[in-house]
What we know:
- The chain is α+β, with helices and mostly antiparallel strands and 189 residues long.
- It has helices at 48-65, 78-87, 89-92, 105-109, 147-162, and strands at residues 14-19, 22-27, 35-40, 68-74, 98-100, 113-114, 119-120, 122-127, 133-139.
- A seven-stranded mixed beta sheet has the order 2-1-5-4-3-8-9.
- The radius of gyration is 17 Å and the shape is globular.
- The chain starts with 13 loop residues before the first strand and ends in a 27-residue tail after the last helix.
Amino acid sequence: MHQSIINSTIKPFSATAFHNGDFHPVTEQDLLGKWSVVFFYPADFTFVCPTELGDMADHYEKLQSMGVEVYSVSTDTHFTHKAWHASSDTINKIQYPMIGDPTGTITRNFGVMIEEDGLALRGTFVINPEGEIKVAEVHDLGIGRSAAELVRKIQAAQYVATHDGEVCPAAWQPGEETLAPSIDLVGKI
Length: 189
């Protein structure tokens, strides 16, 4: 039986990211103290991946306004991330850190390594300021993700974190009614 990664604490790692035109060290400590998204994808210079990373870039300003940092991760090196950033108009618009994980340590920590290929599944993880994983979503390689839906999930996670005793129903949007679970609600929804 596989133990859920939800509510587990992120494991230690040390890597290098390409960010703002330079290389920067990144560890799990950089994810603490704020909301973070760790966004795994199979490989640079591919097909679905640039559409996802571009979509995330289009939503990055909104995520930043919500106090969220995004970290994309693939098993490529940070050098490959720099080359891709320089050669693709879609990837060139990325403002978030692109972490290289050539050893697969981070990818394995989050349980998304395809061992026989040395590549990551499409995994998205939302981490709270305490370093706990609150959202985990993993897709097969042919299924692209939506950053707009991720924004909604983070809004719900942030709401629940700051409103003790309330939960967000399906398709909840900020400003809509939430639920306060109680015996009085049983069978009435």
